[in-house]
């Protein structure tokens, strides 16, 4: 165990974390929940999956005395992320970047935007992945083989195989051939097909 100065006093901290940069996301989440109090934290945990609640409860139980600086930094980081999230949903990524750069400086803005955009990215055909294979089959049957193969390439293998197997026999070989020889597709083409 490491000894840390907390509010001018020595205290032992489980895990020996001496630097905010060494905190994991789980540890930050645990510190955040402890910091906001049990009433609000319990409301937050109601919206989490059981495995997430279990993980966070474990991290909370491992916490000893929370360094006041760590608590402040966690709350500040949360506020920055929520502020950036709000900018992104109301004004787009460029607007968010501009506002963050003006309020936090260029490097901090880049760090926050990078964290957010990696978690917000939508994969191509994301809406199709949630569609029932029978409905999807009806939807793609009248499309060109190259369009069908492009859509199948972005599905889970089992779902793609089910659809391919149920396509009309005369287009199955062409769709299979195009699927097997497909190169990387440009984002513009993906956006056009998604429409």
Strand tally: 2
CATH fold field value of the largest domain:
Annexin V, domain 1
- Widest sheet: strand order? 1-2
Biggest β-sheet description: 2 strands, antiparallel
The low-confidence parts are 1-15
Task: Tell me the strand percentage band.
Answer: 5-15%
Shape: elongated
How many domain units?
3
Write down the CATH class of the largest domain. Mainly Alpha
Radius of gyration: 24 Å
N- and C-termini, Cα separation: 57 Å
- Report the CATH architecture of the largest domain: Orthogonal Bundle
Number of helices: 11
Mean pLDDT: 76
Structural class: mainly alpha
CATH superfamily of the largest domain: Flagellar motor switch protein FliG, alpha-alpha superhelical domain
């Amino acid at each position: 165990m490491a000894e840390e100065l907390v509010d001018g006093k020595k205290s032992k901290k489980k895990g020996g974390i001496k630097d905010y940069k060494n905190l994991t996301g789980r540890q930050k989440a645990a510190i955040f929940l402890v910091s906001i109090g049990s009433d609000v934290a319990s409301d937050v945990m109601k919206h989490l999956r059981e495995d997430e609640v279990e993980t966070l409860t474990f991290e909370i139980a491992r916490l000893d005395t929370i360094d006041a600086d760590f608590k402040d930094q966690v709350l500040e980081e949360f506020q920055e992320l929520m502020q950036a999230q709000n900018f992104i949903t109301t004004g787009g990524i460029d607007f968010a970047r501009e506002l963050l750069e003006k309020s936090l400086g260029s490097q901090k803005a880049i760090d926050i935007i990078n964290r957010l955009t990696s978690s917000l990215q939508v994969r191509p055909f994301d809406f199709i992945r949630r569609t029932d294979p029978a409905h999807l089959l009806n939807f793609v049957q009248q499309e060109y083989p190259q369009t069908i193969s492009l859509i199948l390439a972005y599905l889970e293998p089992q779902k793609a195989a089910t659809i391919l197997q149920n396509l009309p026999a005369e287009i199955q070989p062409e769709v299979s051939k195009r699927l097997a020889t497909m190169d990387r597709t440009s984002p513009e083409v993906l956006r056009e097909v998604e429409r």
